[in-house]
Predict the 3D structure of the following.
Amino acid sequence: MFLLCLIFFRDRVVVELPFKFNFSTMRNFIAGAVEAQRESGAREIYFDFSTLGFVRPEGIVVLSNTIEHFKQANVKVFFRAAI
Amino acid sequence: MNTEANRYLDDAGFFIEYLKRKVFPTSSCRSTTMPLKLFQADAYVPYLYRDLMPWIKSEVNLSNDTLETIKTCLEEIFHNIEYHSGIKTGCTLSQHFPKENRISIAISDFGIGIPTRVRTKMPNLTDAEAIRQACKEGFTKKSNVLNRGAGLPNLIRYVTQRNSGTVLIHSGEGYLSASRGPASSNVTSRQMPWAYPGTIVNVLLRTDTLERLESDIQQEEFTW
């Protein structure tokens, strides 16, 4: 289990990456990122890497795919706490 | 904060791709990792032929025939992005887990998805039904005259029945998993309550059974 934390501001969505990021945990991440941005209409999305504890190859690909999805939708993507 | 996971991201080329710099000064690509690659859908061949396949060859001791079979299977996935996703780019990353005797190959695109494409031929299917349909024998050939790959059914059959590996596909709200069955692949598809933005395919190859690919092919050729 992991806790996905979403923080909504007026024009941004903050998404904490799941502690364990793999094929079976991507659901909450996608919902938290893609659906939250769509519903809020936010033009900025922040991915918080401080919560990431373990990532499988498919998790990296899902993250990359999601970023490309936002880039195509002209949503600005930012990284938080990558180190 | 767990820095190991972020270091793996760095080693896998994620931050180089998006920040144009490494986050950890000592990061470097691991020999067991084929780093993150964003590729043009119509230009996957150089990556597959010159990068991914040589990497697989370097990681596991396999015959050329076996590698050729794997290449044909993977080509189908890239081919589907090129001709069916409606998008120009995809991303992929592969990892060898020597202790698990596994190679994980993840390929994704954020295109229209397999269900949408299938419904141009069969409009009443749910996403789960559509993704299952795309994996049935004969469907790919009927729907695509430009098919260069071996078709999703062949991909699944080779990976599950000959390699005892696993294929996972999530596209739109459709989810399909395929694993080895007693006589044919054990394929299940489900309708999910959420949609993946595009398609992701995760192929898990077993490295301790890969040579069976070659022996099975030779047996088939002899029988034929």
Observations:
- Chain B has nine helices and five strands.
- Chain B touches chain A through 40 residues (CB under 8 Å).
- The longest helix of chain B spans residues 64-84.
- Chain B has a mean pLDDT of 85.
